[in-house]
Design goal:
The protein is built from 10 helices and 8 strands. Helix 1 crosses helix 9 and helix 4 crosses helix 9. It folds into 2 domains: about 140 residues, Rossmann fold, CATH 3.40.50.12500; about 100 residues, Rossmann fold. The strands form 2 sheets. The chain has a 4-stranded parallel beta sheet, sandwiched between helices. The chain has a 4-stranded parallel beta sheet with strand order 6-5-7-8, with helices on both faces. It is an alpha/beta fold and about 240 residues long. The protein is about 40% helix and about 15% strand.
Length: about 240
C-alpha cells in the first residue's frame, strides 16, 4: 500500500521528524511518501494558520493524486481534514483523530501535551469537534518561546516530561497524547518514564490508515463526504481544478 503523508507546515526539519517516526511504525509492505507544504507558516498555532495549512495540504495532495492509496494530514488539529476527505476517494486520516482514537482505546480520560499556549483553544475545539470533550482531562503546553521548531524535543525535554507527569497525577489523565508533528517520536522517549500509556499522533495515523486500507470499506458516493459537486471555479491550481472537474 502507498501512503502519502503531508506536512501542512513549511518546515522541512519537522517533515524529517514525521517521516522518521512514520518509517519506524509502518508495516514492511507499506510505502511512504513525504510531502511538505509549499506555502504557509513554519508551524500552526492559530485557526487562521490552520486554514492556510489545510489549503496547502489540499494543494500538495492534489498534485500527487492517483499515486497514493491513503493520505495522512500530519499536523495536530487536522487542518482541512473534513474538506480533504470529500476531495479524495481514499482513506484520509488526521493526526488528531488518529491519536484520539488510540487514546480512547487505551483509557477513559486523556491529556494533551502541546508546544505552545496559543494552540490550546484551537486544540480544545478540535477535541470537541471529535465529540470527546468530556474525556479531555487537560491540555498542558510549553510557555516559553521556541528557539527552533525542529529542536523542540531537545530544547524542552524536561518540561515536556514534567507536564506529562503532572497531567497524570494532578489532572487524572489515563493516557497522554503528545501533540504536534514537532513532537513526533517523543512518545517512545517517554516510555517507562510516564506511568500511563503515551500516544504519538504520527504513529497512530500511520497504523489507522493501514487498518482502513486493509478493511476495504469503500468510499463515500453519497452523504456529507461525497465529492464536491461540479460548478464553475476560478483561480485554483490546475491540480485542484482537475479534481473538481
Amino acid at each position: 500500500m502507498n501512503i502519502l503523508i503531508v506536512n501542512p507546515n513549511i518546515s522541512e526539519s519537522v517533515s524529517d521528524l514525521i517521516y522518521a517516526e512514520a518509517k519506524r511504525t509502518a508495516s514492511p509492505d507499506t510505502h511512504l511518501t513525504m510531502a511538505t507544504a509549499s506555502f504557509g507558516v513554519a508551524y500552526i498555532e492559530t485557526r487562521f494558520e490552520a486554514l492556510v495549512g489545510g489549503y496547502a495540504t489540499a494543494c500538495a495532495a492534489a498534485e500527487r493524486a492517483g499515486t497514493f492509496d491513503g493520505l495522512i494530514v500530519a499536523a495536530f488539529g487536522d487542518p482541512g481534514l473534513a474538506g480533504i476527505k470529500e476531495l479524495f476517494d481514499v482513506p484520509v486520516v488526521g493526526m488528531t483523530e488518529a491519536a484520539l482514537a488510540s487514546a480512547c482505546l487505551l483509557g477513559q480520560r486523556f491529556s494533551i501535551i502541546a508546544i505552545s499556549h496559543r494552540i490550546e483553544a484551537w486544540y480544545r475545539e478540535c477535541v470537541a469537534a471529535n465529540g470527546l470533550a468530556s474525556r479531555l482531562a487537560s491540555i498542558r503546553s510549553l510557555q516559553s518561546p521556541l528557539r527552533d521548531i525542529g529542536s523542540v524535543q531537545q530544547d524542552h525535554t524536561r518540561a515536556l516530561e514534567d507536564m506529562s507527569l503532572r497531567a497524570v497525577r494532578e489532572d487524572g489523565a489515563d493516557v497522554i497524547i503528545v501533540a504536534g508533528a514537532p513532537l513526533a517520536g517523543l512518545a517512545r522517549a517517554l516510555q517507562g518514564k510516564i506511568p500511563v500509556p503515551v500516544v504519538d499522533g504520527v504513529s497512530s495515523a500511520v497504523r489507522h490508515c493501514e487498518s482502513l486500507l486493509a478493511l476495504r470499506a469503500g468510499h463515500s458516493q453519497e452523504g456529507s463526504f461525497a465529492r464536491p459537486p461540479r460548478k464553475p471555479n476560478s483561480g485554483l491550481p490546475a491540480a485542484l481544478a482537475s479534481l473538481l472537474a
